[in-house]
Amino acid sequence: MKYLTFYADFGKLTLPETGRAVVTTKNGKIICNQTLSKRHHIATLSEFLDIAKSAGYGVAVLPREE
């Protein structure tokens, strides 16, 4: 896998050429980046629940504890 390197006010950031990465920020600054392999998948909670339902799992919303 090829990587691209960028320089910014926080230092050096290396990202894969494929663009498959998750970048974590705090107070508007990049603090971490994680390269994603072909085995990694990103989904919203709603999408994840839909996948679980389609796989036959029961999904229930529980009331919040106060």
What does this structure look like?
This protein has a two-stranded antiparallel sheet with strand order 1-2. A two-stranded antiparallel sheet has the order 3-4. The chain has one domain. The protein has one helix spanning 45-54, and strands spanning 3-8, 11-16, 21-26, 29-35. β1 (3-8) and β2 (11-16) form a beta hairpin. The chain contains one helix and four strands, in the order ββββα. With 66 residues, it is α+β, with helices and mostly antiparallel strands. 0% of the residues are buried.
List keywords for this structure.
two-stranded antiparallel ribbon, alpha+beta, 4 strands
The largest sheet has its strands arranged as 1-2
Tally of discrete structural domains: 1
Number of strands: 4
Rg calc: 17 Å
- Class based on secondary structure composition and strand pairing: alpha+beta
Tell me, rounded to a whole number, the average pLDDT. Answer: 83
**Low-confidence runs:** none
How many strands, what sense, and barrel or not for the largest sheet?
Answer: 2 strands, antiparallel
Return the string of H and E elements: EEEEH
How much of the sequence is in beta strands? 35-45%
Helix content: 10-25%
Q: Tally the helices.
A: 1
Write the layout of secondary structure elements.
Blueprint: E1 3-8, E2 11-16, E3 21-26, E4 29-35, H1 45-54
Antiparallel strand pairs: 1-2, 3-4
Compose a concise summary of this entry.
The protein has 66 residues and is an alpha+beta fold. Helices cover 15% and strands 38% of the residues.
